[in-house]
């Protein structure tokens, strides 16, 4: 091999090694977004969560020890039950009389995201409402849960994470 060809081969191999090394060390982003809006007409708190579907599915599968396959034709027949159970354990809204019942409305799933729709009926807008969200935190320590609460024209936003699971709003 002449020096020019040897240099090109070495450069190509070096570039591939660098690219593969950077890809292998890439850090995945763990975040959910929850929008909560008070509906004065129905006197309910309407909640939508946007989660990375692969992370949520992985957590559900580890908790239930079965394949879930969210949003596919092969989705586990109890997927919605598993989601309800998980939500009831990891997403808690409390007021002075204790935890408020969270109703699972449904879900939408595409290749990247799962949208989970919830409702709290007979919600009373008042100071001191406490939200505790440990969504996905048992499995992904870098997980952050961004919360947006809309009441009329006012929006309160905050972020919950492993060291700070709760916030009054």
The biggest sheet, with number of strands, parallel, antiparallel or mixed sense and barrel status, is: 6 strands, mixed
Estimate the helix proportion, in percent. Answer: 25-40%
Strand order of the largest sheet: 5-6-2-1-8-9
Number of helices: 3
Beta content: 35-45%
> What is the β-strand count?
10
Indicate the structural class: alpha+beta
CA-CA gap between termini: 71 Å
Tell me the domain tally.
1
- How would you state the average pLDDT, rounded? 88
Radius of gyration: 22 Å
Low-confidence stretches: 9-27
Write up this protein.
With 169 residues, the chain is an alpha+beta fold. It has one domain. Helices cover 27% and strands 37% of the residues. It is built from three helices and ten strands; from the N terminus they run H-E-E-H-H-E-E-E-E-E-E-E-E. Strands 5-6-2-1-8-9 form a six-stranded mixed sheet. It has a four-stranded antiparallel sheet with strand order 4-3-7-10. It is globular, with a radius of gyration of 22 Å. Residues 9-27 have low confidence and may be disordered.
